[in-house]
């Protein structure tokens, strides 16, 4: 075989390209197979939910389908972690938290915090009081004048059509929840329930 090439390096380039093409095609085939399996599981889950709402006894099938989806998501998470570690190792980096987060800019240290009226507070304990006060105020119920609320509602000219209302009242699908989980940014302030997005990752 090597007689067909002018040099060993030329032969190696040919072999390397063939190997690369082979593994790329194999990876695409595996990815397509996983995607098809996920769609089948998702479609099956939706159909089973509909049957359950109609009173059919599909509890065992539902549980089996949920397990299949859970295993799919676990495998997907393992692959993401593996590829991240591989990329870091190829760049001669250690697989620690620093290289997973890769901060792009230096963080400025806070020296003091201020209450809403402007009173400065320094020191860890005082700063924690300011932060606690801020979030307690932020998430505390706000009182509104009924006349202002009524005036605001009267100013709304456009309303939802019955079709749009029905669409908004439709339960979330598993695919929508998965998409929301995968596209949510990490390291953000939690909502009113106090649960960060990392809890669902």
UniProtKB/TrEMBL annotation:
It comes from the Eukaryota. This is Uncharacterized protein. It comes from Pleurodeles waltl (Iberian ribbed newt).
């Amino acid at each position: 075989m090597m007689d067909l090439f002018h040099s060993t390096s030329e032969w190696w380039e040919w072999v390397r390209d063939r190997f690369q093409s082979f593994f790329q095609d194999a990876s695409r085939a595996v990815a397509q197979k996983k995607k098809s399996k996920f769609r089948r599981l998702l479609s099956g889950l939706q159909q089973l939910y509909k049957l359950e709402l109609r009173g059919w006894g599909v509890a065992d099938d539902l549980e089996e389908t949920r397990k299949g989806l859970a295993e799919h998501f676990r495998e997907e998470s393992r692959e993401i972690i593996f590829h991240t570690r591989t990329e870091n190792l190829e760049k001669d980096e250690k697989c620690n938290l620093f290289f997973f987060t890769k901060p792009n800019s230096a963080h400025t240290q806070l020296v003091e915090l201020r209450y809403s009226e402007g009173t400065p507070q320094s020191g860890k304990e005082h700063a924690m009081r300011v932060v606690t006060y801020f979030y307690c105020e932020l998430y505390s119920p706000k009182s509104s004048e009924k006349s202002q609320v009524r005036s605001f509602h009267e100013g709304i000219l456009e309303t939802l059509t019955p079709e749009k209302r029905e669409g908004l009242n439709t339960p979330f699908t598993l695919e929508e929840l998965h998409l929301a989980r995968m596209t949510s940014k990490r390291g953000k302030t939690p909502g009113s329930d106090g649960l960060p997005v990392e809890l669902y990752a």
